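testing teh design pipeline on a random one, pls ignore if ur not involved
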């Protein structure tokens, strides 16, 4: 089981808590709202959703029988997230599932009563998702992923692969609050390793080509990609562009901690 499948399975397990809290109702069709920015057709071609739905079936929740999933995605940019979150609230879904910090913050602003399940949030206290890890409070539960401790490791790995590396580009989405946290942590790590960072941004898939052009112009010698739904969906394209530009690339991989509601 890879990390993506694991997250999908565990997120499906976390949904059992909000459903159980309402108690089983004979004949009820439960409704899950999915709030996302991924351009990938959902749930087609998405191993996370395959694992997610498989785990729900194991728990007795089957689409077309006692379960309906309302998929809502912006297809890339995050500016439509508030409208989509409001739509899910109007539909009165039983629970809202979000993939990461950005969508979680929007969902939290949209409702204080509908349970929210987060697949992988970054530094939830610092980003304002919860009051504390021990006592999150509110209507959100899910997983938090480590931030600062892995930022230095990514750069250390690049240094091992390319001992003479000195200029590293970092591709991020400036509208994603989690990326602001990762950027600060990466800056601190780069200072210790005497590396120069180039901050390169992409808010949508159509901005990725320009981002790589900026890297080439600045003569970046390696690339770090901050993961989030839009960039994850473009992973094959990113790998192709990195190969064409001869840029050794490392994507962020994080450990997970359970946030208990």
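output:
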């Amino acid at each position: 089981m890879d990390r993506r499948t694991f997250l999908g399975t565990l997120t499906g397990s976390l949904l059992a808590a909000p459903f159980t809290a309402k108690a089983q109702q004979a004949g009820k069709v439960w409704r899950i709202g999915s709030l996302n920015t991924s351009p990938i057709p959902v749930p087609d071609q998405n191993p996370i959703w395959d694992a997610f739905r498989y785990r729900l079936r194991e728990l007795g929740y089957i689409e077309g029988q006692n379960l309906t999933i309302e998929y809502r995605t912006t297809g890339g940019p995050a500016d439509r997230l508030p409208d989509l979150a409001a739509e899910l609230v109007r539909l009165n879904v039983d629970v809202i599932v979000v993939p990461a910090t950005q969508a979680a913050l929007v969902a939290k602003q949209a409702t204080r009563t509908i349970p929210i399940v987060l697949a992988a949030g970054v530094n939830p206290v610092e980003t304002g998702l919860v009051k504390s890890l021990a006592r999150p409070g509110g209507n959100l539960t899910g997983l938090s992923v480590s931030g600062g401790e892995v930022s230095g490791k990514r750069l250390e790995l690049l240094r091992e692969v390319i001992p003479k590396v000195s200029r590293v580009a970092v591709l991020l989405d400036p509208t994603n609050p989690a990326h602001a946290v990762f950027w600060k942590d990466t800056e601190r790590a780069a200072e210790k390793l005497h590396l120069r960072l180039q901050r390169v941004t992409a808010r949508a898939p159509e901005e990725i080509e320009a981002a790589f052009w900026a890297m080439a112009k600045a003569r970046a010698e390696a690339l770090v990609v901050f993961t989030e739904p839009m960039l994850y969906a473009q992973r094959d394209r990113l790998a192709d562009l990195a190969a064409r530009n001869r840029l050794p690339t490392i994507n962020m991989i994080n450990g997970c901690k359970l946030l208990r509601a």
